[in-house]
Design a protein that fits this description.
With about 450 residues, the chain is of the alpha/beta class. The protein has 19 helices and 18 strands. It has a seven-stranded mixed sheet, with helices on both faces. Strand 10, helix 10 and strand 11 form a beta-alpha-beta unit. The longest helix is centred in the N-terminal third of the chain and has 31 residues, at about 20-50. It is globular and about 90 Å long. It binds pyridoxal-5'-phosphate (PLP). Pyridoxal-5'-phosphate binds near residues 148 and 175.
Protein backbone atom coordinates (compact mmCIF):
# COMPACT_ATOMS: atom_id res chain seq x y z
CA UNK A 1 0.00 0.00 0.00
CA UNK A 2 2.71 2.50 1.03
CA UNK A 3 4.40 1.51 -2.19
CA UNK A 4 1.47 2.95 -4.10
CA UNK A 5 1.82 6.26 -2.22
CA UNK A 6 5.42 6.41 -3.35
CA UNK A 7 4.40 5.84 -6.97
CA UNK A 8 2.14 8.91 -6.90
CA UNK A 9 3.80 11.71 -8.93
CA UNK A 10 4.99 14.72 -6.94
CA UNK A 11 3.54 18.20 -7.45
CA UNK A 12 6.83 19.27 -9.06
CA UNK A 13 6.85 16.33 -11.43
CA UNK A 14 3.30 17.16 -12.52
CA UNK A 15 4.05 20.85 -12.97
CA UNK A 16 7.04 20.07 -15.18
CA UNK A 17 4.91 18.15 -17.69
CA UNK A 18 4.47 20.07 -20.98
CA UNK A 19 0.67 19.56 -20.86
CA UNK A 20 0.51 21.05 -17.38
CA UNK A 21 2.76 23.93 -18.46
CA UNK A 22 0.18 24.68 -21.15
CA UNK A 23 -2.58 24.61 -18.54
CA UNK A 24 -0.53 27.04 -16.41
CA UNK A 25 -0.27 29.47 -19.30
CA UNK A 26 -3.98 29.17 -20.00
CA UNK A 27 -5.40 29.35 -16.51
CA UNK A 28 -2.70 30.75 -14.19
CA UNK A 29 -0.96 29.28 -11.16
CA UNK A 30 -3.78 29.80 -8.69
CA UNK A 31 -6.33 27.63 -10.49
CA UNK A 32 -3.85 25.00 -11.69
CA UNK A 33 -2.26 24.52 -8.25
CA UNK A 34 -5.68 24.16 -6.66
CA UNK A 35 -6.62 21.55 -9.26
CA UNK A 36 -3.34 19.66 -8.83
CA UNK A 37 -3.80 19.50 -5.05
CA UNK A 38 -7.41 18.41 -5.41
CA UNK A 39 -6.51 15.59 -7.83
CA UNK A 40 -3.62 14.37 -5.69
CA UNK A 41 -5.81 14.40 -2.57
CA UNK A 42 -8.45 12.33 -4.35
CA UNK A 43 -5.85 9.83 -5.50
CA UNK A 44 -4.28 9.58 -1.99
CA UNK A 45 -7.72 8.81 -0.59
CA UNK A 46 -8.18 6.13 -3.22
CA UNK A 47 -4.81 4.58 -2.33
CA UNK A 48 -5.74 4.66 1.34
CA UNK A 49 -8.86 2.65 0.36
CA UNK A 50 -6.65 0.08 -1.34
CA UNK A 51 -6.58 1.65 -4.82
CA UNK A 52 -3.67 2.22 -7.14
CA UNK A 53 -1.59 5.33 -7.77
CA UNK A 54 -2.78 7.25 -10.83
CA UNK A 55 -0.45 7.58 -13.79
CA UNK A 56 0.81 11.00 -14.83
CA UNK A 57 -1.33 10.71 -17.97
CA UNK A 58 -4.49 9.95 -16.00
CA UNK A 59 -3.80 12.81 -13.60
CA UNK A 60 -3.33 15.23 -16.51
CA UNK A 61 -6.62 14.13 -18.05
CA UNK A 62 -8.42 14.71 -14.77
CA UNK A 63 -6.70 18.05 -14.26
CA UNK A 64 -7.71 19.22 -17.69
CA UNK A 65 -11.32 18.21 -17.12
CA UNK A 66 -11.33 19.87 -13.70
CA UNK A 67 -10.00 23.13 -15.14
CA UNK A 68 -12.49 23.15 -18.00
CA UNK A 69 -15.21 22.85 -15.37
CA UNK A 70 -13.61 25.51 -13.14
CA UNK A 71 -13.56 28.15 -15.86
CA UNK A 72 -16.91 27.44 -17.50
CA UNK A 73 -19.59 29.99 -16.67
CA UNK A 74 -22.30 28.92 -14.24
CA UNK A 75 -24.74 30.72 -16.50
CA UNK A 76 -24.85 28.42 -19.49
CA UNK A 77 -26.97 28.45 -22.62
CA UNK A 78 -29.83 25.96 -22.78
CA UNK A 79 -32.25 24.94 -25.51
CA UNK A 80 -35.77 25.98 -24.59
CA UNK A 81 -37.97 23.28 -26.13
CA UNK A 82 -40.80 23.94 -23.66
CA UNK A 83 -42.79 26.21 -25.97
CA UNK A 84 -43.08 28.76 -23.15
CA UNK A 85 -41.81 31.94 -24.80
CA UNK A 86 -41.27 34.17 -21.75
CA UNK A 87 -39.84 31.54 -19.40
CA UNK A 88 -38.68 33.31 -16.25
CA UNK A 89 -36.49 30.38 -15.13
CA UNK A 90 -34.77 30.33 -18.52
CA UNK A 91 -34.06 34.06 -18.62
CA UNK A 92 -37.31 35.53 -20.02
CA UNK A 93 -37.04 37.53 -23.25
CA UNK A 94 -34.14 36.99 -25.62
CA UNK A 95 -32.75 40.23 -26.96
CA UNK A 96 -32.93 41.30 -30.59
CA UNK A 97 -29.67 41.48 -32.50
CA UNK A 98 -29.95 45.25 -32.49
CA UNK A 99 -30.26 45.23 -28.70
CA UNK A 100 -27.32 42.85 -28.34
CA UNK A 101 -25.15 45.15 -30.44
CA UNK A 102 -26.25 48.18 -28.44
CA UNK A 103 -25.29 46.40 -25.19
CA UNK A 104 -21.90 45.53 -26.64
CA UNK A 105 -21.30 49.16 -27.63
CA UNK A 106 -22.32 50.46 -24.23
CA UNK A 107 -20.03 47.96 -22.52
CA UNK A 108 -16.95 48.57 -24.62
CA UNK A 109 -16.44 52.34 -24.46
CA UNK A 110 -17.04 55.24 -22.09
CA UNK A 111 -20.34 56.94 -22.80
CA UNK A 112 -22.37 59.99 -21.91
CA UNK A 113 -24.39 57.83 -19.50
CA UNK A 114 -24.60 60.59 -16.90
CA UNK A 115 -22.86 63.36 -18.73
CA UNK A 116 -24.35 66.33 -20.49
CA UNK A 117 -22.20 66.83 -23.56
CA UNK A 118 -23.49 70.36 -24.26
CA UNK A 119 -22.91 71.65 -20.77
CA UNK A 120 -19.78 69.59 -20.15
CA UNK A 121 -21.00 68.49 -16.75
CA UNK A 122 -23.01 65.89 -14.94
CA UNK A 123 -26.24 64.81 -16.65
CA UNK A 124 -28.89 62.22 -15.87
CA UNK A 125 -28.89 58.55 -16.83
CA UNK A 126 -32.67 58.68 -16.76
CA UNK A 127 -32.90 60.62 -20.01
CA UNK A 128 -31.72 57.72 -22.16
CA UNK A 129 -34.77 55.60 -22.99
CA UNK A 130 -37.33 58.06 -21.63
CA UNK A 131 -38.07 60.01 -24.81
CA UNK A 132 -38.70 56.86 -26.82
CA UNK A 133 -41.01 55.52 -24.12
CA UNK A 134 -43.02 58.75 -24.18
CA UNK A 135 -43.12 58.79 -27.97
CA UNK A 136 -44.39 55.21 -28.12
CA UNK A 137 -46.97 55.46 -25.36
CA UNK A 138 -48.09 59.08 -25.23
CA UNK A 139 -46.94 59.36 -21.61
CA UNK A 140 -45.84 62.80 -20.39
CA UNK A 141 -42.74 61.41 -18.77
CA UNK A 142 -40.99 58.13 -18.02
CA UNK A 143 -38.18 56.67 -15.95
CA UNK A 144 -36.50 53.26 -16.07
CA UNK A 145 -35.32 51.26 -13.06
CA UNK A 146 -33.90 47.79 -12.44
CA UNK A 147 -37.12 45.75 -12.71
CA UNK A 148 -40.87 46.07 -12.37
CA UNK A 149 -40.96 44.87 -8.75
CA UNK A 150 -38.57 47.71 -7.96
CA UNK A 151 -40.67 50.11 -10.02
CA UNK A 152 -43.80 49.20 -8.02
CA UNK A 153 -42.07 49.55 -4.64
CA UNK A 154 -40.55 52.87 -5.66
CA UNK A 155 -43.77 54.30 -7.07
CA UNK A 156 -45.79 53.15 -4.04
CA UNK A 157 -43.20 54.63 -1.70
CA UNK A 158 -43.29 57.98 -3.45
CA UNK A 159 -47.05 58.14 -3.98
CA UNK A 160 -48.41 56.48 -0.89
CA UNK A 161 -45.93 56.04 1.98
CA UNK A 162 -47.83 56.57 5.21
CA UNK A 163 -51.14 56.64 3.36
CA UNK A 164 -53.89 54.23 2.53
CA UNK A 165 -53.88 52.50 -0.84
CA UNK A 166 -57.23 51.26 -2.11
CA UNK A 167 -57.14 48.05 -4.16
CA UNK A 168 -59.65 45.42 -5.23
CA UNK A 169 -59.58 42.09 -3.35
CA UNK A 170 -59.38 40.35 -6.73
CA UNK A 171 -55.99 41.95 -7.36
CA UNK A 172 -54.09 40.95 -4.23
CA UNK A 173 -52.07 38.56 -6.34
CA UNK A 174 -48.84 36.67 -5.96
CA UNK A 175 -46.86 36.93 -9.20
CA UNK A 176 -44.24 34.36 -8.26
CA UNK A 177 -40.68 34.70 -7.09
CA UNK A 178 -41.83 36.33 -3.87
CA UNK A 179 -43.77 39.22 -5.40
CA UNK A 180 -47.00 39.41 -3.40
CA UNK A 181 -48.96 42.61 -3.65
CA UNK A 182 -49.81 42.88 0.10
CA UNK A 183 -46.13 42.36 1.06
CA UNK A 184 -44.90 44.91 -1.49
CA UNK A 185 -47.41 47.35 -0.04
CA UNK A 186 -46.05 46.80 3.49
CA UNK A 187 -42.49 47.29 2.20
CA UNK A 188 -43.40 50.66 0.75
CA UNK A 189 -44.91 51.84 4.01
CA UNK A 190 -48.37 52.09 2.52
CA UNK A 191 -51.48 50.80 4.23
CA UNK A 192 -53.47 48.30 2.24
CA UNK A 193 -57.20 48.86 2.05
CA UNK A 194 -58.96 46.03 0.23
CA UNK A 195 -62.35 46.66 -1.26
CA UNK A 196 -64.96 44.60 -3.06
CA UNK A 197 -64.95 40.83 -3.13
CA UNK A 198 -62.78 38.19 -4.73
CA UNK A 199 -64.91 38.11 -7.86
CA UNK A 200 -66.74 41.44 -8.00
CA UNK A 201 -65.57 44.97 -7.26
CA UNK A 202 -67.23 48.23 -8.35
CA UNK A 203 -66.08 51.85 -8.50
CA UNK A 204 -68.46 52.60 -5.64
CA UNK A 205 -66.42 50.21 -3.44
CA UNK A 206 -63.33 52.36 -4.03
CA UNK A 207 -65.34 55.53 -3.54
CA UNK A 208 -66.67 54.39 -0.15
CA UNK A 209 -63.16 53.51 1.07
CA UNK A 210 -61.77 56.98 0.34
CA UNK A 211 -61.06 59.18 3.37
CA UNK A 212 -58.53 61.84 4.41
CA UNK A 213 -55.78 59.22 4.75
CA UNK A 214 -56.21 57.81 1.24
CA UNK A 215 -53.10 58.36 -0.87
CA UNK A 216 -53.60 56.21 -3.94
CA UNK A 217 -55.96 54.05 -5.96
CA UNK A 218 -54.13 50.99 -7.24
CA UNK A 219 -54.91 48.54 -10.00
CA UNK A 220 -52.77 45.42 -10.47
CA UNK A 221 -52.84 43.19 -13.53
CA UNK A 222 -53.85 39.64 -12.59
CA UNK A 223 -50.89 38.32 -14.59
CA UNK A 224 -50.72 34.64 -13.93
CA UNK A 225 -54.31 33.87 -13.09
CA UNK A 226 -57.79 34.44 -14.39
CA UNK A 227 -61.06 35.05 -12.70
CA UNK A 228 -63.93 33.89 -14.79
CA UNK A 229 -67.66 33.56 -14.37
CA UNK A 230 -69.61 36.10 -12.27
CA UNK A 231 -66.96 38.81 -12.16
CA UNK A 232 -66.66 42.59 -12.25
CA UNK A 233 -63.87 45.11 -11.90
CA UNK A 234 -64.04 48.81 -12.68
CA UNK A 235 -62.35 49.91 -15.89
CA UNK A 236 -59.24 52.06 -15.68
CA UNK A 237 -61.20 54.94 -17.16
CA UNK A 238 -63.72 54.66 -14.31
CA UNK A 239 -60.91 54.68 -11.75
CA UNK A 240 -59.32 57.66 -13.49
CA UNK A 241 -62.65 59.45 -13.35
CA UNK A 242 -62.89 58.79 -9.63
CA UNK A 243 -59.32 60.00 -9.27
CA UNK A 244 -60.22 63.18 -11.09
CA UNK A 245 -63.21 63.76 -8.83
CA UNK A 246 -61.34 63.13 -5.58
CA UNK A 247 -57.85 64.35 -6.44
CA UNK A 248 -56.38 60.98 -5.43
CA UNK A 249 -53.89 59.63 -7.98
CA UNK A 250 -54.39 56.25 -9.64
CA UNK A 251 -51.59 53.85 -10.40
CA UNK A 252 -51.56 50.65 -12.40
CA UNK A 253 -49.08 47.79 -12.22
CA UNK A 254 -49.49 46.41 -15.70
CA UNK A 255 -47.02 43.55 -15.19
CA UNK A 256 -46.08 42.40 -18.66
CA UNK A 257 -47.11 45.55 -20.43
CA UNK A 258 -47.20 45.26 -24.18
CA UNK A 259 -46.76 47.99 -26.76
CA UNK A 260 -48.53 46.11 -29.53
CA UNK A 261 -51.92 44.46 -29.63
CA UNK A 262 -51.91 40.69 -29.07
CA UNK A 263 -55.27 40.07 -30.82
CA UNK A 264 -53.92 39.88 -34.43
CA UNK A 265 -51.79 36.94 -33.24
CA UNK A 266 -54.83 34.91 -32.26
CA UNK A 267 -54.46 35.73 -28.59
CA UNK A 268 -56.78 37.47 -26.16
CA UNK A 269 -56.33 41.16 -25.68
CA UNK A 270 -53.44 41.97 -23.34
CA UNK A 271 -53.75 45.55 -22.07
CA UNK A 272 -51.21 47.90 -23.67
CA UNK A 273 -49.27 50.67 -21.95
CA UNK A 274 -50.81 53.17 -24.39
CA UNK A 275 -54.32 52.20 -23.26
CA UNK A 276 -53.43 52.88 -19.62
CA UNK A 277 -52.08 56.30 -20.52
CA UNK A 278 -55.17 57.13 -22.62
CA UNK A 279 -57.43 55.95 -19.80
CA UNK A 280 -55.78 58.62 -17.68
CA UNK A 281 -53.82 56.71 -15.04
CA UNK A 282 -51.23 58.86 -13.30
CA UNK A 283 -48.55 56.18 -13.13
CA UNK A 284 -48.24 52.86 -14.93
CA UNK A 285 -45.44 50.34 -14.40
CA UNK A 286 -44.34 47.40 -16.56
CA UNK A 287 -41.49 44.93 -17.05
CA UNK A 288 -38.84 45.36 -19.73
CA UNK A 289 -38.28 41.64 -20.30
CA UNK A 290 -41.79 40.24 -20.62
CA UNK A 291 -43.92 41.03 -23.71
CA UNK A 292 -41.84 44.12 -24.40
CA UNK A 293 -39.06 41.71 -25.35
CA UNK A 294 -36.21 43.80 -23.99
CA UNK A 295 -33.71 43.60 -21.13
CA UNK A 296 -34.67 43.20 -17.46
CA UNK A 297 -35.99 46.62 -16.47
CA UNK A 298 -38.87 48.32 -14.70
CA UNK A 299 -40.63 51.00 -16.73
CA UNK A 300 -42.46 53.78 -14.92
CA UNK A 301 -44.56 56.04 -17.12
CA UNK A 302 -47.13 58.73 -16.56
CA UNK A 303 -47.66 62.29 -15.35
CA UNK A 304 -44.54 64.41 -15.24
CA UNK A 305 -45.06 65.75 -11.73
CA UNK A 306 -45.13 62.21 -10.27
CA UNK A 307 -42.23 60.97 -12.41
CA UNK A 308 -40.22 64.01 -11.23
CA UNK A 309 -40.91 63.09 -7.60
CA UNK A 310 -39.92 59.48 -8.31
CA UNK A 311 -36.64 60.60 -9.92
CA UNK A 312 -35.80 62.63 -6.82
CA UNK A 313 -36.52 59.89 -4.29
CA UNK A 314 -33.39 58.39 -2.64
CA UNK A 315 -34.68 54.84 -3.27
CA UNK A 316 -34.17 55.25 -7.04
CA UNK A 317 -30.42 55.07 -6.43
CA UNK A 318 -30.83 51.55 -5.08
CA UNK A 319 -32.83 50.53 -8.15
CA UNK A 320 -30.49 52.14 -10.61
CA UNK A 321 -30.44 50.74 -14.11
CA UNK A 322 -27.18 49.79 -15.82
CA UNK A 323 -25.83 51.40 -19.01
CA UNK A 324 -25.98 48.15 -20.97
CA UNK A 325 -29.64 47.76 -20.00
CA UNK A 326 -30.46 51.29 -21.10
CA UNK A 327 -28.71 50.67 -24.41
CA UNK A 328 -30.60 47.41 -25.02
CA UNK A 329 -33.91 48.97 -24.03
CA UNK A 330 -33.33 51.91 -26.36
CA UNK A 331 -32.57 49.55 -29.25
CA UNK A 332 -35.63 47.42 -28.46
CA UNK A 333 -37.89 50.46 -28.36
CA UNK A 334 -36.51 51.66 -31.70
CA UNK A 335 -37.73 48.43 -33.30
CA UNK A 336 -41.26 49.31 -32.15
CA UNK A 337 -40.91 52.85 -33.43
CA UNK A 338 -39.83 51.52 -36.84
CA UNK A 339 -42.72 49.01 -36.71
CA UNK A 340 -40.32 46.08 -36.95
CA UNK A 341 -41.14 44.38 -33.66
CA UNK A 342 -42.38 41.12 -35.21
CA UNK A 343 -39.36 40.93 -37.51
CA UNK A 344 -36.70 41.84 -34.97
CA UNK A 345 -37.75 41.05 -31.42
CA UNK A 346 -37.48 37.35 -30.55
CA UNK A 347 -40.59 37.31 -28.29
CA UNK A 348 -42.69 38.65 -31.18
CA UNK A 349 -40.94 36.51 -33.78
CA UNK A 350 -41.91 33.46 -31.73
CA UNK A 351 -45.47 34.65 -31.10
CA UNK A 352 -45.97 35.38 -34.81
CA UNK A 353 -44.40 32.21 -36.24
CA UNK A 354 -47.08 30.65 -38.46
CA UNK A 355 -48.18 27.10 -37.63
CA UNK A 356 -47.08 25.82 -41.08
CA UNK A 357 -43.54 26.88 -40.32
CA UNK A 358 -43.59 25.05 -36.97
CA UNK A 359 -45.02 21.94 -38.65
CA UNK A 360 -42.26 22.11 -41.24
CA UNK A 361 -39.53 22.34 -38.60
CA UNK A 362 -40.96 19.54 -36.49
CA UNK A 363 -41.12 17.38 -39.64
CA UNK A 364 -37.51 18.22 -40.42
CA UNK A 365 -36.50 17.25 -36.91
CA UNK A 366 -38.28 13.94 -37.20
CA UNK A 367 -36.81 13.24 -40.64
CA UNK A 368 -33.30 13.45 -39.21
CA UNK A 369 -33.85 10.38 -37.11
CA UNK A 370 -33.51 7.35 -39.29
CA UNK A 371 -35.76 4.55 -38.10
CA UNK A 372 -32.67 2.34 -38.13
CA UNK A 373 -31.07 4.54 -35.46
CA UNK A 374 -33.88 4.08 -32.98
CA UNK A 375 -33.94 1.30 -30.44
CA UNK A 376 -37.06 -0.79 -31.03
CA UNK A 377 -38.82 0.42 -27.86
CA UNK A 378 -38.48 4.14 -28.76
CA UNK A 379 -40.85 5.89 -31.13
CA UNK A 380 -41.12 9.44 -32.41
CA UNK A 381 -44.26 11.18 -33.55
CA UNK A 382 -45.53 14.64 -34.40
CA UNK A 383 -48.27 15.84 -32.15
CA UNK A 384 -50.64 18.81 -32.06
CA UNK A 385 -49.82 20.83 -28.98
CA UNK A 386 -49.99 24.32 -27.52
CA UNK A 387 -47.25 26.87 -26.89
CA UNK A 388 -47.77 29.55 -24.26
CA UNK A 389 -46.58 33.12 -23.88
CA UNK A 390 -45.66 32.81 -20.19
CA UNK A 391 -44.17 35.54 -18.06
CA UNK A 392 -47.42 36.22 -16.27
CA UNK A 393 -49.04 37.51 -19.42
CA UNK A 394 -52.11 36.03 -21.08
CA UNK A 395 -52.86 33.28 -18.53
CA UNK A 396 -54.72 30.34 -20.00
CA UNK A 397 -53.92 31.52 -23.52
CA UNK A 398 -52.05 29.37 -25.96
CA UNK A 399 -51.01 29.11 -29.57
CA UNK A 400 -51.30 25.93 -31.66
CA UNK A 401 -47.98 24.27 -32.41
CA UNK A 402 -46.58 20.98 -33.65
CA UNK A 403 -44.31 19.14 -31.25
CA UNK A 404 -41.99 16.21 -31.72
CA UNK A 405 -42.87 13.63 -29.08
CA UNK A 406 -40.72 10.80 -27.83
CA UNK A 407 -42.26 7.69 -26.32
CA UNK A 408 -40.80 4.46 -25.04
CA UNK A 409 -38.58 5.96 -22.33
CA UNK A 410 -40.13 7.02 -19.00
CA UNK A 411 -40.79 10.76 -19.60
CA UNK A 412 -39.21 12.08 -16.41
CA UNK A 413 -36.14 9.95 -16.96
CA UNK A 414 -35.81 11.09 -20.57
CA UNK A 415 -36.36 14.75 -19.62
CA UNK A 416 -33.62 14.45 -16.99
CA UNK A 417 -31.21 12.89 -19.51
CA UNK A 418 -31.91 15.64 -22.03
CA UNK A 419 -31.11 18.22 -19.34
CA UNK A 420 -27.66 16.66 -18.95
CA UNK A 421 -26.59 17.25 -22.55
CA UNK A 422 -24.48 20.22 -23.70
CA UNK A 423 -26.28 22.49 -24.11
CA UNK A 424 -29.03 21.14 -21.85
CA UNK A 425 -32.40 20.62 -23.57
CA UNK A 426 -35.37 21.71 -21.46
CA UNK A 427 -38.56 19.96 -22.54
CA UNK A 428 -42.22 19.87 -21.64
CA UNK A 429 -43.99 16.75 -20.47
CA UNK A 430 -47.60 16.35 -21.57
CA UNK A 431 -49.90 13.35 -21.78
CA UNK A 432 -47.10 11.29 -20.30
CA UNK A 433 -44.73 12.06 -23.16
CA UNK A 434 -41.72 14.28 -23.65
CA UNK A 435 -42.59 17.08 -26.10
CA UNK A 436 -40.14 19.22 -28.06
CA UNK A 437 -41.80 22.43 -29.25
CA UNK A 438 -40.02 24.16 -32.16
CA UNK A 439 -41.60 27.55 -31.39
CA UNK A 440 -39.03 28.43 -28.72
CA UNK A 441 -36.02 26.59 -30.18
CA UNK A 442 -33.72 28.91 -32.10
CA UNK A 443 -33.21 27.69 -35.68
CA UNK A 444 -29.45 27.87 -35.04
CA UNK A 445 -29.93 25.24 -32.32
CA UNK A 446 -31.78 22.72 -34.50
CA UNK A 447 -28.76 20.59 -35.38
CA UNK A 448 -27.35 20.35 -31.86
CA UNK A 449 -30.83 19.59 -30.54
CA UNK A 450 -31.16 16.64 -32.93
CA UNK A 451 -27.59 15.41 -32.33
CA UNK A 452 -28.06 15.50 -28.56
CA UNK A 453 -31.44 13.77 -28.74
CA UNK A 454 -29.97 11.06 -30.93
CA UNK A 455 -27.14 10.50 -28.49
CA UNK A 456 -29.54 10.15 -25.58
CA UNK A 457 -32.07 7.96 -27.36
CA UNK A 458 -29.32 5.79 -28.74
CA UNK A 459 -28.25 5.08 -25.18
CA UNK A 460 -31.84 4.20 -24.36
C1 LIG B 1 -44.04 40.19 -13.52
C2 LIG B 1 -44.83 41.13 -12.67
C3 LIG B 1 -44.19 41.90 -11.69
C4 LIG B 1 -42.72 41.78 -11.43
O1 LIG B 1 -41.98 42.32 -12.49
P1 LIG B 1 -40.40 42.03 -12.60
O2 LIG B 1 -39.99 42.76 -13.83
O3 LIG B 1 -40.25 40.56 -12.67
O4 LIG B 1 -39.77 42.60 -11.37
C5 LIG B 1 -44.94 42.76 -10.95
N1 LIG B 1 -46.28 42.88 -11.16
C6 LIG B 1 -46.93 42.16 -12.10
C7 LIG B 1 -48.41 42.32 -12.25
C8 LIG B 1 -46.22 41.26 -12.89
O5 LIG B 1 -46.85 40.53 -13.82
Amino acid sequence: MTNEFRKLPSVDKLLSQPAVQTLLTQHGTLLVMAAVRAELTINRDEIAQGGLAATVEALIDNLTARLVEAVSPTLQPVINATGVIIHTNLGRALLSERAQRAMQHAASAYSNLEYNLDAGKRGSRYVHAADLLCQLTGAESAVVVNNNAGAVILALTVLAQGHEVVISRSQLVEIGGGFRVPDIMTQSGAKLVEVGTTNRTYVRDYERAINVDTGLLLSVHHSNYQITGFTAEPTLAELAQLSHKTGIPVMEDLGSGTLIDTVPFGLDHEPTIQESIIAGVDIVTASGDKLLGGPQAGLILGKKRFIDQIKQHPLIRALRVDKTTLAALHATLLAYLEQKATQEIPVWQMISTPLEQLVHRAEQWQAQFSAAHLPSHVSLALSDSQSTVGGGSLPGQSMPTKALTITGIAPHKLAAQLRQTTPPIITRIGQDRVLLDPRTVLPTQDQILIDNCKAIIGQG
